[in-house]
């Protein structure tokens, strides 16, 4: 069988029109002689009634009494509803379809509720359904643990479900359908010049996803790379080619004519700068990082230079970070209202002058760079949030994205 996995997001299955578009994509695959396995997310977005956040709001007033196992049970309802409705819709059009929850789809996970990791997929039921000529419709975002309790895979987990199934079923490709035409050179909401990329390497997409591009979940990208499963990002509501994620960069990146592939961004960030005193600087740095870790505060752009230490974190954790530093007896300088832009491109590896060009064009655009780090294929800059649009447009123009 020529198996493909087709994953559809919440906006794709939220309305009757959307579900018909989903059905059109499934029927198109069937007409090509393919055997599609469909993965769906919960319908819509908050405040729509079956969206994940809407379901969680039902117990929002009971926060001190919340149980992670029960929250997973609640959140899983969204995908279950989508799966049953979508299977019914396909059958109403004359196509055999069969709804599968995570247990019957054979998705086995770790015991960590809210952030389960997939251990294996027992494909017997899905393969039997495919051999019978059915279209399996599977709940995304979830598996079952060693106690056979439903365990969600973390936000964006339906992408992970799709790629996991693609790997286990040896699918030709995993198609991730969303409400955009593909991966773009920048967020079109902040850059009018943003263009769709026809192909991106897994390495580049992993960096873009980790730096704020929300088209594909980072875990799904990593899994696609690990298992050599091509992932194709497409629009449910259109016929654009989309973006193919593959193990190798496209030829133009290999030839380094495309030095930077795209730019991603994050907002809502704060920066901390600490000046340590005395003879135990290394121990004090470790105490700071341990305190942040214990409070669940993820640090980024960590930079150590002599007695100084810089790092950034989500502003939503500002009060916890301030309290942690106060308890440790450290004074720090905090800068809020920050954003981070990240230039990503396999073509910058070994290419001199990329950082210079990035900083020069930002300077010419009047954008102050508070903090900057780089790796083989990524250059990240912390900037004032109110300069985000100017910064992205400047680098977009500089590198002809």
What labels describe this entry?
401 residues, Carbamate kinase, single chain, alpha/beta, VC0802-like, 18 strands, eight-stranded mixed β-sheet, six-stranded antiparallel β-sheet
How is this structure best described in words?
The protein is α/β, with parallel strands linked by helices and 401 residues long. The chain folds into two domains: 3-179, Carbamate kinase (3-Layer(aba) Sandwich), CATH 3.40.1160.10; 262-398, VC0802-like (2-Layer Sandwich). 36% of the residues lie in helices and 25% in strands. The chain is built from 14 helices and 18 strands. The chain has helices at 10-13, 16-31, 52-57, 68-92, 102-105, 124-131, 157-168, 202-210, 218-227, 251-254, 281-294, 318-328, 354-364, 388-398, and strands spanning 3-8, 35-40, 97-100, 107-109, 118-121, 135-139, 142-144, 150-152, 174-178, 199-201, 231-235, 243-246, 262-275, 300-305, 308-314, 332-344, 371-374, 378-384. An eight-stranded mixed beta sheet has the order 3-6-2-1-9-11-12-10, sandwiched between helices. A six-stranded antiparallel beta sheet has the order 14-15-13-16-18-17. β7 (142-144) and β8 form a beta hairpin. α7 packs parallel to α9 (218-227). The two termini are 39 Å apart. The relative contact order is 0.10. The model has no long low-confidence stretch (mean pLDDT 93).
């Amino acid at each position: 069988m020529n198996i493909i996995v087709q994953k559809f997001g919440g906006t794709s299955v939220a309305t009757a029109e959307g579900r018909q578009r989903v059905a059109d994509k499934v029927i198109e695959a069937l007409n090509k002689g393919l055997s599609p396995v469909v993965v769906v997310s919960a319908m819509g977005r908050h405040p729509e009634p079956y969206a994940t956040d809407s379901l969680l709001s039902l117990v929002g007033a009971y926060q001190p009494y919340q149980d992670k196992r029960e929250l997973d049970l609640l959140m899983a309802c969204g995908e279950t509803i989508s799966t049953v409705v979508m299977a019914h819709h396909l059958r109403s059009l004359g196509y055999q379809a069969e709804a599968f929850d995570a247990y019957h789809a054979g998705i086995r996970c770790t015991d960590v509720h809210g952030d389960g990791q997939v251990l294996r997929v027992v494909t017997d039921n899905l393969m039997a359904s495919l051999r019978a000529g059915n279209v399996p419709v599977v709940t995304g975002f979830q598996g079952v643990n060693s106690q056979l309790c439903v365990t969600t895979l973390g936000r964006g987990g339906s992408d992970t479900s799709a790629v996991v199934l693609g790997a286990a079923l040896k699918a030709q490709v995993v198609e991730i359908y969303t409400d955009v035409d593909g991966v773009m050179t920048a967020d079109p909401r902040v850059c009018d010049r943003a263009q769709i990329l026809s192909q991106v390497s897994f390495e580049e997409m992993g960096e873009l996803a980790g730096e704020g591009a929300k088209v594909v979940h980072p875990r799904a990208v990593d899994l696609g790379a690990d298992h050599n499963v091509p992932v194709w990002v497409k629009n449910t509501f259109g016929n654009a080619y989309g973006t193919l994620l593959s193990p190798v960069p496209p030829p133009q990146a290999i030839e380094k004519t495309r030095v930077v592939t795209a730019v991603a961004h994050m907002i809502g960030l704060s920066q901390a700068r600490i000046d340590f005193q005395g003879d135990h600087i290394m121990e004090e740095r470790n105490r700071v990082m341990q305190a942040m870790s214990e409070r669940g505060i993820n640090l980024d752009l960590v930079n150590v230079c002599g007695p100084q230490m810089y790092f950034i974190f989500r502003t939503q954790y500002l009060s916890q970070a301030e309290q942690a530093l106060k308890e440790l007896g450290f004074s720090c300088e905090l800068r809020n209202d920050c954003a981070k832009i990240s230039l990503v491109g396999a073509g910058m590896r070994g290419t001199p002058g990329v950082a210079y060009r990035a900083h020069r064009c930002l300077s010419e655009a009047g954008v102050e760079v508070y903090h900057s780090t780089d790796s083989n294929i990524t250059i990240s800059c912390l900037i004032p949030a109110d300069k985000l649009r100017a910064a992205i447009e400047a680098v977009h123009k500089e590198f002809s994205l």
